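User: Here's a structure from my thesis project, written as structure tokens. My advisor, Dr. K., wants to see whether a designed sequence matches the one we expressed. Can you design one independently, without my sequence as a hint?
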């Protein structure tokens, strides 16, 4: 197999254009400052990569050429109904069976632990600045809860999420253990998730709290790593998390801002003279600094020809049964998300030299060994891009999207034609001009596997020369992707909602097996069985104008002819729900006849000036045998005239609706209101 297939993105025309841009940027930097090739000729690979990247990124920023990455950060994803419960209570909605994800609420049937984020100062006269974890005892007969205690997470700014592991509660928090560094990262309006300066100044803390007394969690260990949390998972009692760190190096005049008054050459020498250790993330144990990570310089560094990058990514494993047993593996570059299965941990991001590609770094869970690294064309777009990946039997299935902007339209997707003419025996895509008009989205499925030399082998891609059916109509972008076993479900949308069923049973020959076209679209897909699929999204008219929320049940028993069994509309245009962006906002609980679904939504009336009519709790029972959805509850919990309205909209409030027995617990920023469905109906 020709492995160049997996890394070739452009025609020569594009490569020449990108090279010209990079050369111009480098020449501009050299004309104002130092010759990096000369200054860094004796540096280690990691030092060369970080310092070159730091100087190049800074120079681009001062020239108002802010870096722009095109893919959304990966978020956590969801689970199917068979993993929706730990008994008579719901658990966190996750992507993969056996892979837990952090959330702001965790319960075990006896206690519910909920994060209370601090309110902005102007909303909190008490001046509380640190988050808390509230401990609620829960009961089932009748369904109720009572506050038993709380613990303040001193020094933390907010909580990223919780894990509940046996008799331990793990809190992932964001804090600033060294306030002296909290200067440059917040001063520039151009800083964003995709800019390396965003990742300065803060630390990610793993706080382990003992639950010997369940009502009063007691923190007994804390590991802090400098940098922001990208994402985390817990697999077989091991916490895996990825953090990203960019060092803060103040300009020579000690200014807190970057500006034209800064001497580029002087600042570059400041960077070049900085010891490597100062460019590496620090670590603290129980509040005491113990050194820096990766002082041996052992780190996975992308090709230096791509110009370097100033950020370090730490992949960390912590044994939750013995938190002092931990290890970290070093990576670098534009890493923005993660995907994990019970057999692999994969970090996703960008190749430095290609804006329309997805970088994949595949790690083993045991030893955090980098097993393979490579890239595929296209990016992971959408509100839940993590849905686009799935590992099965050692193969990674990934669906990417490319947009042919007008100034790239003749070259961007021509990598497909290049694959067509390559010597690879693997199935390859047909020429892009046969697929769609040049200004449309191009959506492609790739199946890759680690090769013995540490690269990724391309097993197949779709569409290809033999399987020419495209994914999506002209102009449609991908709204949702969900894998289940040997199938992938893909929803695209512009005016109508095509649901595609992809057959992945033969990894070397995937194909579009079925398609259904209806109005509206699903933003979240949840397989309930091999033959029943739930979609939650937006209704729309025939022109594509959205019109309220929509729940749809799909029968997929005949994959070649999927059908929409029923649909339920909630509210009018403007109505929304957190589940459309965050799968943790929905709860699923197995029942005797199938599964119970719960989430909250905001009700708007488009016929009355888009008036907000309140926020509601919605519960439905889905019978997986009769394939029916029955509404159980749809009632307001927040009214337009409620005094808490301002706090809800102008703070870090969140809402969850964990289910237990025949009732639910409404969690709003740590506060819990509980009751049976009958109790809620009577309100």
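Assistant: Designed independently from the structure alone:
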């Amino acid at each position: 197999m020709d492995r160049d297939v997996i890394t070739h993105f452009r025609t020569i025309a594009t490569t020449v254009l990108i090279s010209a841009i990079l050369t111009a940027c480098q020449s501009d930097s050299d004309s104002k400052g130092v010759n990096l090739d000369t200054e860094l000729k004796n540096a280690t690979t990691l030092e060369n990569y970080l310092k070159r990247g730091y100087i190049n990124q800074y120079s681009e920023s001062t020239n108002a050429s802010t870096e722009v990455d095109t893919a959304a950060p990966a978020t956590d994803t969801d689970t199917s109904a068979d993993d929706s419960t730990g008994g008579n209570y719901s658990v966190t909605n996750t992507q993969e069976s056996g892979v837990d994800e952090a959330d702001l609420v965790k319960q075990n049937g006896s206690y519910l632990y909920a994060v209370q984020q601090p309110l902005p100062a102007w909303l909190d006269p008490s001046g509380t600045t640190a988050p808390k974890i509230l401990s609620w005892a829960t009961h089932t007969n009748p369904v109720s809860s009572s506050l038993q205690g709380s613990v303040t997470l001193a020094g933390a700014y907010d909580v990223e999420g919780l894990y509940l592991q046996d008799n331990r509660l793990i809190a992932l928090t964001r804090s600033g253990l060294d306030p002296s560094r909290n200067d440059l990262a917040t001063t520039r309006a151009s800083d964003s998730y995709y800019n390396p300066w965003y990742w300065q100044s803060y630390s990610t803390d793993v706080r382990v709290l003992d639950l010997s007394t369940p009502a009063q969690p007691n923190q007994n260990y804390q590991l802090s790593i400098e940098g922001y949390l990208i994402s985390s998972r817990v697999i077989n009692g091991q916490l895996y998390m990825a953090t990203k760190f960019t060092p803060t190096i103040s300009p020579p005049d000690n200014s807190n801002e970057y500006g034209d008054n800064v001497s580029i050459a002087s600042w570059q020498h400041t960077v070049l003279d900085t010891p490597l250790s100062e460019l590496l993330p620090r670590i603290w144990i129980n509040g005491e600094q113990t050194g820096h990570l990766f002082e041996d310089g052992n780190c996975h560094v992308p090709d230096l020809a791509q110009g370097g990058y100033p950020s370090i990514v730490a992949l960390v494993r912590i044994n939750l049964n013995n938190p002092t047993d931990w290890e970290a593996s070093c990576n670098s570059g534009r890493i923005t998300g993660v995907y994990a299965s019970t057999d692999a941990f994969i970090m996703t991001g960008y190749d430095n030299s290609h804006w329309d590609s997805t970088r994949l770094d595949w790690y083993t869970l045991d030893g955090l060994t980098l097993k393979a690294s490579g890239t595929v064309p296209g990016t992971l777009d959408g509100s839940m891009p993590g849905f686009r990946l799935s590992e099965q039997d050692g193969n990674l299935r990934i669906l990417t999207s490319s947009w042919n902007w007008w100034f790239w339209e003749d070259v961007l997707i021509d990598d497909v034609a290049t694959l067509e003419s390559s010597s690879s025996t693997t199935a390859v895509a047909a020429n892009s001009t046969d697929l769609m008009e040049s200004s449309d989205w191009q959506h492609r499925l790739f199946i890759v596997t680690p090769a013995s030399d540490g690269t990724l082998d391309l097993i197949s891609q779709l569409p290809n020369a033999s399987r020419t059916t495209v994914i999506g109509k002209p102009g449609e972008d991908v709204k949702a992707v969900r894998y289940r076993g040997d199938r992938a479900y893909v929803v695209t949308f512009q005016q109508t909602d095509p649901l595609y069923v992809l057959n992945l049973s033969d990894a070397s020959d995937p194909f579009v097996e079925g398609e259904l076209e209806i109005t509206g679209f699903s933003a979240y897909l949840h397989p309930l069985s091999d033959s029943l699929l739930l979609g939650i999204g937006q209704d729309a008219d025939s022109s594509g104008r959205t019109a309220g929320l929509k729940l749809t049940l799909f029968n997929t028993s005949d994959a070649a002819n999927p059908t929409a069994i029923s649909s339920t509309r909630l509210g009018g245009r403007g109505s929304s729900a957190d589940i459309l962006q965050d799968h943790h906002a929905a709860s699923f609980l197995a029942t005797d006849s199938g599964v119970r679904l719960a989430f909250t939504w905001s009700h708007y009336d488009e016929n009355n000036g888009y008036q907000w009519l309140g926020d509601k709790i919605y519960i439905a029972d889905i019978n997986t045998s009769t394939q029916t959805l029955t509404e159980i509850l749809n009632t307001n919990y927040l009214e337009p005239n409620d005094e808490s309205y301002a706090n809800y909209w102008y703070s870090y409030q969140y809402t969850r609706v964990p289910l237990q027995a025949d009732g639910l617990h409404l969690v709003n920023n740590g506060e819990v209101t509980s009751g049976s469905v009958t109790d809620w109906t009577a309100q």
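When you compare it with your expressed construct, this may help: The CA atoms of residues 98 and 342 lie 6 Å apart.
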